[in-house]
Amino acid sequence: MPVTTRTYHSITEAQMMPRLIRLGPNLYGAAFTLMKLLPATYILQRADERGELGPGTVIVETTSGTFGLALAMQAALLKRELILVSDPAIDANLYRRLTDLGAKVEICPEPAPVGGFQEARLRRLAEIRAELPDTFCPEQYSNPDNPRSYSVVAEQLSQALGTVDCVVGPVGSGGSMCGTVRGLRERSDHTLAIGVDSHRSVLFGQPDGERPLRGIGNSLWPANLDHSVFDEVHWCSAGEAYAQARDLHARHALFQGPTSGAAYLVARWWAERHPDQQCVVMLPDEGYRYQATVYDDAWLADNGHLLAEAGKPVEPVTVDGPDQADDSWTRLAWGRRSYDEVRGTVPRFSTSSAERTL
User: Fold this and answer.
1) DSSP structural state of residue 229
2) Is the pLDDT of residue 92 over 70?
């Protein structure tokens, strides 16, 4: 077969778009090396075009995951100073990579009473910005350039697959799902959006609490999360997500992280029940950061996440409101409603500095 070679200007350009992989008769995976490279690169490009990045501007952001890595990669290429505010849950290997790329990483040792570590990180971020003369914050939770960056993914899916009947993806900041689905609905309004969240995440109405499944869910309501985009919401446990990440690897040799596993669990179920409709599942990042955790049976067993074959769920429990969800795989027909239109959601707090920031 003929070999074609494309030269990229940078590693971020080479890795920001997903590979489209067929996972079933009507199921395709949009598999990213590092999904957050797309919004991080786009946000910094747009800021530069608007004159918001002067010669001495310091980039600052709050993150505990892959958005920080994407920013660190881009900041290293741009030779810009970067300060990231995180919390003790940050992965040690990720921390080492961030600092090796030249980023300064500050750790908030204690959570805030309301809003948890994300609120504490936002408060420290505000202090840093007050201390420095010139900063730029990408604000992934509220910057509309985050969801806008995914218009190219919608274009890619449309060109490669034609009509996309359903998109399934994990939700954290809201950018990837809201941006991709909006782009697809400009071409075909019937495209369904199924968001995948973690139990004890406030995003779709559950009370805030401890979440072992990282990279999905939130303790705050991001401004970029447009609830009216979503037709369904599914919540799953860490063990279920980990098992499906391993299954995705065993079945398709796709080595992805646990949020990809959570989305794959839901997407495979939906695609099997709608054989005449085409489904795309968003798979955000690769599995290398999780080799000592998700891909280690001893770690899974020691932490209570190793599911026996008989214990793996085959379908979700459908509920009428988020207040009815338990700790297993649960489904709610959201129906493109606003947050306040859905019965059983926890009330939003209104006095937090985080909400004002977002």
Assistant:
1) G
2) yes
